[in-house]
Input
Amino acid sequence: MEILQIADKIKEKFPEEILDIKEFRGQVSVLLKKGKILEICRYLHDQTDLSFNYLADVCGVDYLGKKENRFEVVYHLYSIKHRHAIRLKAEVSGDNPAIHSVVSIWAGANWHEREAHDMYGIVFQGHPDLRRILMPDDWDGFPLKKDYPLKGTEKEWPGFTDVLDRAKRFSEFDWKG
Output
């Protein structure tokens, strides 16, 4: 099945949810409203003629000041059986940056959603363990947001002195043997 046919199947099944379909250099992106992302992903996963059984990536994008909805959550899906791929993009507002988690469909989404949450502050509703994954637990803010200060926060991170102390202790070891 051609990838544009897959986009058409999504549009046929969920006509109110599709905002745009774009094809560029053999890749197709489907821009969606966020409300039924879980149902759309379940449909793409479960339909035998589609069988998108591999979630390659979930990531966030910040369009601060460029679009009405500040964020997009981007899903890169692949069907191992049929060897086709599609990109879903769901719009998420800056006022309420929340969208349903797809961990119940693809367990591998767990880490990707945690990363998007950690870097952008996007909340994945229904996620089993939505806590920081890259930044320390006590970190203030979300570093990939466009309005995050370029030099970091004005105040020093509370865990900074602990890291320095730990580094000092490790420097006492001769790691070369």
User: Anything to note?
Assistant: The longest helix spans residues 109-120.
